[in-house]
Predict the 3D structure of the following.
Amino acid sequence: MNTNDANVARAAHLDTASLSDAMDRLGINGQCYKLAPRDNGFRMAGRAFTVLYGPAAKPAGTVGDFIDDVPAGGVVVLDNGGREDATVWGDIMTELAHKKGIAGTVIDGICRDVAMCRKLGYPVYSRGHWMRTGKDRVQVEAVNVPVNIGNVRVAPGDILRGDADGVVAIPREHEEQVLSVAEEIETAENRIREAVRNGSRLDEARKVNQYHQLQTKR
């Protein structure tokens, strides 16, 4: 995580559920469908460095030598069109990303070599994992362009937050509003927890804190 980026630090202290509810209230599509951590202990927050893939030409282009250009604290965001029969991330990339201090990797597609990311504690989020290489099957088409990740538009510089529940993408132009609403939601939910711990009925604590309207579009 880039601790010099105040909004990334704020996102890191919020869970994806609160951020998801905040974006529902604001009418923003930011929940990356079907992307899950390769280990439930993974946590991640950072700004997107995006890579767009396409089917390989003949001769095939590279599957990616972009890693040296990703800044420390950034999140590698790979759009492989949800493809599940060819990987675009493996152990060499994991080791280098970890060494560089990159915050994590998000793939609309699959990865391989999950033992390495688990060993290093390097967060990888994807649709699954399988061993077949993407070399000669896919190639990089563009870097740092808007991409589609789990039916969500992700632009370079957007904040990506991942935890055990999955990944949310916070558009840069709306991040202040999303973070503020998510913080409000978490505060309300913490009040409910505290009230119940002190003997309140759950329905009453929820009513007082307007629990059932926290995510409602306004």
User: Anything to note?
Assistant: The radius of gyration is 19 Å. The longest strand covers residues 75-87. Helices lie at 6-12, 16-26, 91-100, 114-120, 175-197, 202-208.
